[in-house]
Please model this.
Amino acid sequence: MSSEQAVTISGLVRRFWVRVSITTVLVVLESVVTVLFPLFIGLAINGLLVDSMNGVIAFGALVAAAVILGSARRAYDTRAYAAIYETTASELVERERARGTDVSTVVARTRLLSEFVQFLETSLPGVANGSISLVGTLVILATINIPVFLGCLGVVLVVVVQYALTGRLNYRLNEGFNDELEGQVDAIASPDPVVARTHFRTLMRWSIRLSDLETVNYAVIFVAVIALLVYAPVALVDQTAEYGFVFAALMYVFQFTGDLEAFPYYVQQVIRLREISARLGDTGEDAAPA
Model:
């Protein structure tokens, strides 16, 4: 196994494909089960209105499946990604030592590497769940109420355009933040207190600029979400006959908006990891799968 390898999400996935595949299957199954919750609640309500318990029983079985799948995935993820970080961090330290990289940079880069593994363990399931939830919600809403479905598509378009406009700026801000972060150990070790104070002030400024950009993106998305929340109940009451499906559709709209509100966090992480990948990347060949 070569220690010379590019540090990227796709590289880690290819190398540790068995572990990642297992957790991906569990994530997909859990997400599919979860996205069906509002629909099954609506079916249960419709059933109760005609004195039938079949919908309630089906919803109970769905909840049990979600608990089992979610518990199994979390137990497996903790062990799998701890092993991945142990392997990759050790190799990174060995590689950087062989190159004569200073300790300050090695410490910073092992810290940055941990963000890749944390993304795979905690954020990637969220991205997968959010993506499946968005697609599933749109598909189900299209069968319940076309005007609400079109309203949701309009919000998705707003989000895509907003991040297309701000993506490059986001990358540059992350680049500046990480440049400063790599000098942290040297700044702390300096006998001159002004050096450390200047370092943390600069780091804070980069962090504030990143936060301000996130705030702008969030505000644009929030306005679009509020417009959808005002429009959806009116459209649903006017064009949806069964009470259970009205309730289910409203739940899907709230679920849809919740997924969109989490979107800025995941986009920020992906952009940050792209910049870290360029920083940690290498022209060497990928290691063999393990």
Q: What stands out?
A: Residues 1-6, 282-290 have pLDDT under 50 and may be disordered. The chain has nine helices and no strands. Residues 145 and 238 are 10 Å apart (CA to CA).
